[in-house]
Amino acid sequence: MGDLTDLSASELSAKIAVRDVSCVEVMQATLGRIDAVNPGLNAIVSLRGRDDLMAEAADADNSPSKGWLHGIPMAVKDLVPTTGIRTTWGSPIYADHVPDEDALLARRLKADGAILIGKTNTPEFGLGSNTFNPVHGITANAYDATRSCGGSSGGAGVALAARMVCVADGSDMMGSLRNPAAWSNVYGHRPTFGLVPGDAQGDSFLHQLATLGPMARNPVDLAKLLQTLAGPDQSQPWGRKFEAEPVSNGLDLKGKKIGWLSDWGGALVYESEISDLTEEALQVLEDLGAVVEPVAPPHPFEQIWDAWITLRSWAVAARIKDVWDNPVRRKRLKPDAVWEIERGLGYSAMDVYEASSRASEWFRAAAQLYQTYDALVLPTAQVWPFPKDWDWPKEINGHAMETYHQWMAVVVPASLIGLPAVNLPVGFGRNGLPAGMQLFGPRGADLSILQMANAYHSATDWPNRRPPELG
User: Fold this and answer.
1) In whole angstroms, how far apart are CA 186 and each of 109, 139, 161, 267?
2) Does residue 359 lie in a domain region?
């Protein structure tokens, strides 16, 4: 039978459905894998008790199937409230918080049969692309335990790479479904904004920068999990459905035209080999029939960046203002959160309007570009996984980073205007570390992007071609 933890979610689902394996056997294998590798990686936190999980797996074996995730163990990102499972947001303020109600994402996973076993680690409040916090500590890269795994869905990426889970959820404001996927040699998909609703709390009209989404070791699983998570919520304005099944069809890219944005005319700086690996991956797309062309900078990057840092700070300040308003809690916030909140609270309504206008200009420029191209490509990260005890890289090739997140500016073009973007693994540098590239299309093109990703995966399969070597 082999190791069950090496199977994809789709493969496990099929075996459970025909009773080739039991949910109990899958749970036993999952917990055994976690026991073996999680102590050295710290990807899964707040793990539920073994007896409870085994009992739930046995119940699944004796119950009708709820959906394609029936009996499959999943760990939910520690930004998602879960009934009876500690949810901390990586903050000491919520270190002992145990919700009495599931978030919408957790409810949808359970409705499709998933067994929630615990949480995946994240930076405090999801801020920053290095997964560490004062509650659960640092999550290590599965390919080098001295290095960062990225973030904020870092625990999810490492849990996937290390075969502790077969599919995972994440969230993405500034690359959080893409950067940790790249640094874990797996796939992460940022959906079109509105495709996957969050919870109906606070503003649901103005803030369009962040979204929930799927991570997996192949694009078919990505699409299936996206179908589970997607769909309208009557209490929110942006929902739409997503049909996943056609993703498995077609293994060539004939007729597709892809634009390579490279370094955006010098606006983006990369460490060595990153562009080279991306161009090698683009050759794979060409070998599959796509036409790949270099694209001149389609819009001033400084305008995109200025709009981004204004709207992001405004959104972050609004999201955790209740913490800021409490003097005791405020003292426990990490410096990056304080920086964002102070900036966000300092903006006027007109400041936000002007930033939104600049974002709208980029949206119109991108829409024009998509009249020619089916997708655009950029590297997923500008640097290699850095030492995990750093807070963030202070420079790239001698270029100083002015903010804690400027080293991740490469993900902003898709994030700012809510475009669907998938990380494709592109192989490894001479340092032995993995990298990735973003394939992103116009709003609503999730299915097309995932079909292209699946064609690429069929030709490369980096996650199974070079899994991490763990003791």
Assistant:
1) 21, 16, 7, 27
2) yes
pLDDT in tens, 195-216: 999 998 888 899 999 999 999 9
Is there a domain that residue 259 lies in?
Answer: yes
For residues 356 and 354, give the distance between their C-alpha atoms in angstroms, rounded to a whole number.
Answer: 5
- Cα 448 to Cα 189, 258, 340: the distances in Å are 12, 12, 35
- Assess if residue 470 is contained within a domain: no
What's the whole-model pTM score? 0.97
Look up the CATH number of the domain holding residue 357: 3.90.1300.10
One-letter amino acid identity for 312? R
User: Within a domain: residue 262?
Assistant: yes
pLDDT single digits (tens) 368-410 = 999 999 999 999 999 999 999 999 999 999 999 999 999 999 9
When the pLDDT of each residue in the chain is averaged and rounded to a whole number, the result is: 96
User: Per the structure, how many domains does the chain have?
Assistant: 1
pLDDT at position 241 is 83
The rounded distance, in Å, linking the Cα atoms of 50 and 46 is: 12
263 vs 270: CA distance, rounded Å: 8
Largest CA distance in the chain: 62
> Which domain does 185 fall in, by range?
4-465
